[in-house]
Amino acid sequence: xxxxxxxxxxxxxxxxxxxxxxxxxxxxxxxxxxxxxxxxxxxxxxxxxxxxxxxxxxxxxxxxxxxxxxxxxxxxxxxxxxxxxxxxxxxxxxxxxxxxxxxxxxxxxxxxxxxxxxxxxxxxxxxxxxxxxxxxxxxxxxxxxxxxxxxxxxxxxxxxxxxxxxxxxxxxxxxxxxxxxxxxxxxxxxxx
Length: 192
What we know:
Blueprint: E1 6-10, H1 25-37, E2 42-43, E3 48-55, E4 58-65, H2 73-82, E5 90-96, E6 104-108, H3 116-125, E7 131-136, H4 146-150, H5 156-179, H6 181-188
Helix pairs in contact: 1-5, 2-3, 5-6
């Protein structure tokens, strides 16, 4: 049987000064998924911190690009290439400004919506047709520059809700792996 491995990349910025930033939501979800696998991240020559194991019964390589957000594509493409994983089994987990805080949105393909990390991944993979697990961080208040907003830590109120939000996003990724996109969207997208 062929290895049905998936590559899951959580996007963020390396370094302690960025750890609690909204832009690091992808790293936070990747950390929880690694903990669920009982795996630890190790440096890898792909330019990512990597952890391996199984989620939802399938082999998974988790990656956290060690480059800054805007250069995430190279490490993601290197992992995909090294493990010979088709783009159809790549999931990128990232923060999303245009989704309300705490809301999870899953999709296949689409644009980068001004997200430089996604722009880098799309360029490096030479396609938009990879899965995205988008964790909503909401819009900046007033006239705040979105670039400044994403590099701020979550608010005190948001931090109280954050563990549950990260948990739900990790659950959504596992559901996508185990049951497919439609089932995961039905379960995790809010109904209005």
